[in-house]
Amino acid sequence: MDAPTTDHELLAALQVAREKNPELAQTLDLHAEVIGARSKVEANPPDLKADKQEVANLVDERAPLIERWQLEWDPDAFAALATQICDIGARHRSELAPSFDEVRSLLTGDSRKSLDIVSAYLKEGKVGLPDLADETREVLSFVLIHSLHPFFRAYASVLTPLIEDQKWYQRLCPICGDEPDFAYLEEKVGGLRVLCSRCDTLWTFKRGECTFCANANNETFAYYLSDDNVYRLYVCDNCQRYLKVMDGRETSLKPVLSLQRIITIGMDLSARQEGYQ
Prior knowledge:
The protein has nine helices and six strands, in the order H-H-H-H-H-H-H-E-E-E-E-E-E-H-H. It has helices at residues 7-20, 25-39, 52-60, 75-92, 97-108, 111-124, 134-159, 257-263, 265-273, and strands at residues 180-185, 192-196, 202-205, 221-225, 231-236, 241-247. The protein has a six-stranded mixed beta sheet, with helices on one face. A hairpin with a 5-residue loop joins strand 2 and strand 3 (202-205). The chain is globular.
């Protein structure tokens, strides 16, 4: 499987993107500072004692590897990074400062409560806590993704080389079991490669069906093209989900997909305005 983009590579790509897209300065500056903070966290690859045959068996069973080898993270390093990210977020998005303050308290106050929140997030792939306001839940998800990212990357670095991508073809990430939030149509054959929203693992998925509910009815699963045909917005009326896609056949550039998910924020806004999630 493909090695994910490093944070240092992503930071360099963000700088170039900022020069080309000054209208996205607020979004790009926020992400650049967050990614810069997380890049300084040293997370050593864990000793999972995973062998290729055991991984192959789990892949045959369509089981994400996190079900067998649990993610390990340093609670102190996690809390310190979460605090830093909340400070960065509150500074760049002052209208969300109360939500970042609340999230900081949740993740760095009571250590048992923080552990419960992270454990539930790893198990369910989403933020629980139904009593939270919607915008605070979104902020919590943002902080969790970035605060756990160094540990996910270290974890994936051990397991990714053991997976035969062509044997997976599932809607969930083979490493951490989360959903994709971006995809890429390969420039030569148009194969669909999807990017995990949590650990940045890239894997192959079927074209012509919804990544989230497997709907293949072209009356309820369709896509909209950008003006230059480089981007597609896949939408499903069956599950009301959407996926952003970049078409490599329409551009000569080799994209940094973890950057593309950031600079296509306008597609997220358009999809959500139409009722897709």
